[in-house]
C-alpha cells in the first residue's frame, strides 16, 4: 500500500457487496464533544436505517462507551414505536488510522468472524466508521486478563478464533506489515522541533538489522499460521459477568499470522496502558494459558512437547510485537491528532524489545538446536 493510498470503507462495502449491510456517505467529526456530535450521530442512524428515518430525535440517546487511542465507541439507544428499545454501537475510526489499518481486510473478515460467533454483527458502514450490534458486557481491564479463570476462557476462545477460515490469501502478514510500517516510519518529518529532535535519535539502520535478525530466527520456528486478532488487549475483550460470556471485539488489525505472535502480543498487553512490563506473565501463568489453548476440553492432557513449542513461539514473537507497535507509534506520532506521546511510546516498546531480546533469542536458539538434534 503506497503512502497516499488509503482504504475507504464505503468503496470496500460496495466492492464486497456485503449483503444486509447498510451504507451512508456521511462522516462524523471525531473531535466534536458529545453534545455537538449527538445530532450528527442521530442523522447518521436515520440515514443508515430507514425504519428510524421518521422517528423524532428525542427517541435517540447517545453515550460514550470507550475512547481508545485509535477509536471512539458510542452506544446509541433508540426508542422505536410501541416503546421497543434498540441498541447499536457506532465506532468512529481514529483520524488517519487508514495509514496503518487495512479496512478492506477488516470488513471482509468481520462477516466471517461474526458468522462464527465472534464480535458484534456488522450492520452498516459510513464514511469514517461502522455500526454494529450492541454487546451487553463490560470491557476488561488489564488486571482481569491474568485472573486464572479469565485467562483460561481467553485461551479457549482464541483456540476457536484461530480455527476460523477467512477466504483469500493465507499468507502471514507480520513481516509485510512491519516492512510497510518501517518504510513509512523511516521517512517522517515533524514540524515540531522537539518531536523532530526525538525522531532523529532513532537509528533506523539498527532497527532494520533487528527486524532482519528476528525474522531469520522466527522463520526457523515454522510456527502455524492462523487467522489472528493481532491486538488482543484488555480493551478488545468484553465479559458479561451474569452469563459468564467472553467476547472478542475490534478486528481492525486481524490478518493471517503466526499463532505465536497473537499469543505473545496478548501477553505483552498484561502490561496495561501504563506499559508496566514487570506484569508480563511468568512461565507458570503462560503454561496455564497454553494448556487451555491447546486442549480446551482437557487442558491437563496438553503434551509437554506442545507446551514447550508454544512457549518458545510466543516468547520469540513477543519480541516482534514490540517492534511492530514501536514502528506503529512513530507513524501515529506524525499522523494522529490524538494527544498521546507516540514518540515516547516508540522508545518504550523498542527499549523493552532490547531488554528482552538476548534472553528469548537464546531460548529459541537452544530449542531449535534441540529440535534439530532430536
Automatic annotation (TrEMBL):
**CDD domains per UniProt:** ETNK_euk
Q: Which domain of life is it from?
A: Eukaryota
Pathway per the UniProt entry: Phospholipid metabolism; phosphatidylethanolamine biosynthesis; phosphatidylethanolamine from ethanolamine: step 1/3
- Pfam families from the xrefs? Choline_kinase (PF01633)
Q: Name one GO molecular function term.
A: ethanolamine kinase activity
Which InterPro entries does the entry link to?
A: Kinase-like_dom_sf
Q: Name one GO biological process term.
A: phosphatidylethanolamine biosynthetic process
Q: Name one GO cellular component term.
A: cytoplasm
UniProt-listed Enzyme Commission number(s): 2.7.1.82
The family classification in the record reads: Belongs to the choline/ethanolamine kinase family.
UniProt-recorded name of the protein: ethanolamine kinase
What species is this protein from? Carpinus fangiana
Amino acid at each position: 500500500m503506497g503512502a497516499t493510498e488509503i482504504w475507504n470503507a464505503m468503496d470496500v462495502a460496495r466492492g464486497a457487496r456485503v449483503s444486509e449491510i447498510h451504507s451512508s456517505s456521511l462522516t462524523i467529526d471525531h473531535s466534536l464533544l458529545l453534545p455537538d456530535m449527538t445530532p450528527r450521530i442521530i442523522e447518521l442512524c436515520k440515514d443508515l436505517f430507514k425504519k428510524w428515518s421518521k422517528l423524532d430525535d428525542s427517541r435517540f440517546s447517545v453515550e460514550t462507551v470507550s475512547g481508545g487511542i485509535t477509536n471512539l465507541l458510542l452506544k446509541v439507544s433508540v426508542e422505536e414505536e410501541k416503546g421497543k428499545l434498540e441498541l447499536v454501537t457506532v465506532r468512529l475510526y481514529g483520524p488517519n488510522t487508514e495509514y496503518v489499518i487495512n479496512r478492506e481486510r477488516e470488513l471482509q473478515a468481520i462477516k466471517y468472524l461474526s458468522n462464527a460467533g465472534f464480535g458484534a454483527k456488522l450492520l452498516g458502514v459510513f464514511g469514517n466508521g461502522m455500526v454494529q450490534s450492541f454487546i451487553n458486557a463490560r470491557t476488561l481491564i488489564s488486571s482481569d486478563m491474568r485472573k486464572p479463570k479469565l485467562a483460561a476462557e481467553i485461551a479457549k476462545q482464541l483456540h476457536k478464533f484461530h480455527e476460523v477460515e477467512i477466504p483469500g490469501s493465507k499468507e502471514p502478514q507480520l513481516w509485510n506489515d512491519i516492512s510497510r510500517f518501517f518504510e513509512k516510519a523511516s521517512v517522517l518529518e515533524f514540524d515540531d522541533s522537539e518531536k523532530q529532535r526525538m525522531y532523529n535519535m532513532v537509528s533506523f539502520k539498527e532497527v532494520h538489522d533487528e527486524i532482519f535478525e528476528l525474522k531469520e530466527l522466527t522463520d526457523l520456528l515454522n510456527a502455524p499460521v492462523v487467522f489472528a486478532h493481532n491486538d488482543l488487549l484488555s480493551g478488545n475483550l468484553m465479559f458479561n459477568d451474569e452469563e459468564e460470556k467472553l467476547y472478542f471485539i475490534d478486528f481492525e488489525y486481524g490478518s493471517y499470522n503466526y499463532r505465536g505472535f497473537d499469543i505473545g502480543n496478548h501477553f505483552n498487553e498484561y502490561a496495561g496502558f501504563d506499559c508496566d512490563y514487570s506484569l508480563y506473565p511468568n512461565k507458570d501463568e503462560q503454561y496455564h494459558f497454553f494448556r487451555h489453548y491447546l486442549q480446551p476440553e482437557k487442558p491437563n492432557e496438553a503434551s509437554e512437547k506442545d507446551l514447550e513449542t508454544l512457549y518458545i513461539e510466543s516468547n520469540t514473537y513477543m519480541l516482534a510485537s514490540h517492534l511492530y507497535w514501536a514502528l506503529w507509534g512513530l507513524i501515529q506520532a506524525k499522523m494522529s491528532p490524538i494527544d498521546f506521546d507516540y514518540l515516547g511510546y516508540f522508545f518504550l516498546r523498542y527499549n523493552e524489545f532490547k531488554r528482552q531480546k538476548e534472553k528469548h533469542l537464546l531460548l529459541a536458539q537452544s530449542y531449535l538446536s534441540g529440535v534439530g538434534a532430536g
